[in-house]
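Field notebook, page 167. I keep forgetting to write these up properly, so this time I am using the form the group agreed on. The chain and the ligand, fe (ii) ion, are recorded exactly as supplied. Prediction of the bound pose follows.
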Amino acid sequence: MRKMTEENLNSAFAGESKAHMRYLIFAECAQKEGKPNISRLFRAIAFAEQVHATNHLKVLEEVDSTTRNLEAAISGENFEVDETYPSYLEVARLQAEKGAQRSMNFALQAEKIHSAMYQKAGQQADEGKDILLKDIYICSVCGYTIEGEPPQTCPVCGATKDKFKKF
Ligand code: FE2
Ligand code: FE2
Ligand code: FE2
């Protein structure tokens, strides 16, 4: 693919991904404000942005077999753990940005777990198998991720058990 087109597709993918996420977050807000139809509008259009993002990623040939997708996922999580968040956190500390330190640390802690979970899955996928997986619980405050049972309180942010969402 021509270089500029590739860069443009990458940037369009990032833009659509952001819009998708924003709209889902806005949908939750509208729901809490008691505006279910505006919430539904945000969710519907979020899905359209997901379709756009998916199409761009496919044209970029970044959607592959599950084995390859897990490799890509692991390297993305590892990059966040090793480079992105540690360096961003340093800057946030230097600038005394408390909110950013908190949200970035929450992410950093969870990404470590994500990387490990994907690595385990990758070993099975390499042998052509699916994994055995118990319920997964995600802390809705910080994103802490655990397989099995949710803890009484989140080890990262201290949220109570009822704040965990099951998958
Ligand atoms: Fe779009
Ligand atoms: Fe992650
Ligand atoms: Fe948490």
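OBSERVATIONS:
- DSSP finds four helices and three strands in the chain.
- The chain has a mean pLDDT of 97.
FOLLOW-UP: compare against the apo run.
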